[in-house]
Amino acid sequence: MAEKQQKGNAQSKGNAPAKDDNKITTRAANYSEWYLEIVRRAGLAENSDVRGCMVIKPTGYAIWEKMQRGLDRMFKDTGHVNAYFPLFIPMSYLAKEEEMAEGFAKECAVVTHYRLKAEKGKPLQVDPTAELEEPLIVRPTSETIIWRTYKDWIQSYRDLPILVNQWANVVRWEMRTRLFLRTTEFLWQEGHTAHANQQEAEEETLRMVNVYKKFAEEFMAMPVMVGPKSEGQKFPGAVYTLCIEAMMQDGKALQAGTSHFLGQNFAKAFDCSFQNEKGQRESPWATSWGVSTRLIGGLIMTHSDDNGLVCPPRLAPIHVAIVPLGRTDAERAPAIAAAEKLAAELRGMPRDDFFSYEPITVKIDVMFDKQPGYRYAEHELRGVPVRVEIGPKDLEKSACAVARRDVPGKEGKQFGVPLDGAAAHINTLLRDIQASLLKKAKAYRDAGLKTADTYAEFQEKLELGGFVAAHWDGTRETEDKVQAETKATIRCIPFPENGLEVAPGVCMVTGAPSKQRVLFARAY
RNA sequence: CGGGCUGUAGCUCAGCUUGGUAGAGCGCCUGGUUCGGGACCAGGAGGUCGCAGGUUCGAAUCCUGUCAGCCCGACCA
């Protein structure tokens, strides 16, 4: 960007310096540049020709598939089933729920025609005679079409609850996009449930935010804070929104998942009602909840380092890279043979819940045209949790070298690991890595958790990054004022379960009474 | 939507001020020397200079238009 603006200046004449010495931009030098380089060089995604839309590359998609698998299992275990609803939603549906219409109006892609006109020698154009009577919007979220459908599905209390999830893509026409964190089109899941009473729906709302918390911590090794959003930050159309908030390595917050209690808003907007046991008509109670490919952005920014991607083993597309070494075919052949043997042993390890009953994935690196250092660096860049090196010197001792990605560089490498038993050792190591990534991320997050009692102290601490717990009078005005002056928003009103003290106090801005501290941060 | 900027090789960019028919680094291909922490040498492939007009003997370069993208802001759960 800076270079671009310089372009055309007399000073920038001469060839650009060789930009790439193979090292990536460090987090300290330029955090967002670092992030984008990780995404690109780890082969996760790239910008497409379509503005704001990304191409998710096989490695990035593999992470998403693992996320899907983990989450889907948890959804099923809590009684949900999958279904699929249309991509297109009649514009009038969105209009039925006022808050939602207002919330999403400015970022909707609209389909107005159903045909193009192709004539020889003329540019392809929209056929003006093929205008839709009613424009369709491309779903930014599916509450409306789903509640229009539920209206027909729900007649009796016996039809409830409905516990449906859909895996889908949605479009939100954002002004500014960033790979994974905010793209015009993104992949997500959205759960939409209907319940016979308020209590059940509220329990569901809480249950699902806790599913997200569990997933974030157990699969992503990403600690999160859980609690409701402020009135100003909640989902349009919701009564309240619960969320999980993670803290990235630059101290900014990332909303990683939301679970909304929708009350009877959508049921009423779509005339959906049922008869209860007593024969009375009632409106069902709703929830919706979602996480998206944004989680991949969070995953990257939670663990990765200046050597590249760090991926927790439970979500890693490849668990183990084996690098056979040797200068000649005579040296390489036994190294490759040993690599293949170890790979087979790793793949044959007993499967368990940790890897969703799938085998350990192993890749044997045969890039013999590259130097060993290049090959090591490449696997580090791509975030492979464990790298094994097998060369002539190891084979003399029937051993190998095992490097763990969470401890970068040579420090994480252990020489002389006996090949006999190496598979079991690595299997254990993968679990250690998963655990220590969470521990490390938690320590980082906790260190970034600050408390402020006065507005001056708040502003000072905010500059250090991280969450600042402060008292707030609960008003929209104060929240807006803080945001306008500091760019910080209320990320959530933390539940006691987060381990933060919940005690009354006075608002740091107005001095009015406050029930508890809330978490402020600058956010993505 | 306001303000600024940029479109030249797969990528990052130089060349434009002062018009003469296109370059560098990286990447890619071939061969060779290397090889336990990001090697090197030699040769090679690759570009209708965003698009459309105009000026000119001649346009990447000057002019007009147009499209696209980027940055700052606004907006954005």
Descriptive notes:
By secondary structure, the chain is an alpha+beta fold. 33% of the residues lie in helices and 25% in strands. The strands form 8 sheets. Strands 3-9-10-16-13-12-11 form a 7-stranded mixed β-sheet, sandwiched between helices. The chain has a 5-stranded mixed β-sheet with strand order 18-17-19-20-21, with helices on both faces. The radius of gyration is 26 Å and the shape is globular. Mean pLDDT is 92; it is low at 1-20. The chain binds one RNA strand of 77 nucleotides through helix 1, helix 11 and helix 12.
Question: Descriptors for this entry?
Answer:
alpha+beta, 524 residues, RNA-binding
Secondary structure: elements and pairs:
Blueprint: H1 2-6, H2 31-41, E1 45-47, E2 54-56, H3 58-77, E3 81-82, E4 88-90, H4 91-96, H5 98-104, E5 110-113, E6 116-117, E7 125-126, E8 131-138, H6 143-153, E9 162-171, E10 185-195, H7 198-218, E11 225-228, E12 240-247, E13 253-263, H8 265-269, E14 274-275, E15 281-282, E16 285-292, H9 294-303, E17 320-324, H10 329-347, E18 362-364, H11 372-381, E19 386-390, H12 392-396, E20 399-404, E21 413-418, H13 422-447, E22 449-452, H14 455-462, E23 467-471, H15 476-486, E24 489-492, E25 505-506, E26 513-514, E27 517-521
Parallel strand pairs: 3-9, 17-18, 17-19, 22-23
Antiparallel strand pairs: 1-2, 4-8, 5-8, 6-7, 9-10, 10-16, 11-12, 12-13, 13-16, 14-15, 19-20, 20-21, 23-27, 24-27, 25-26
Helix pairs in contact: 3-7, 10-13
The chain binds one RNA strand of 77 nucleotides through residues 1-5, 7-8, 10, 12-23, 51, 103, 106-107, 172, 174-176, 182, 229, 233-236, 241, 243, 255, 258, 323, 325-327, 368, 370-378, 381, 389, 391-394, 401, 409-410, 413, 415, 489, 523.
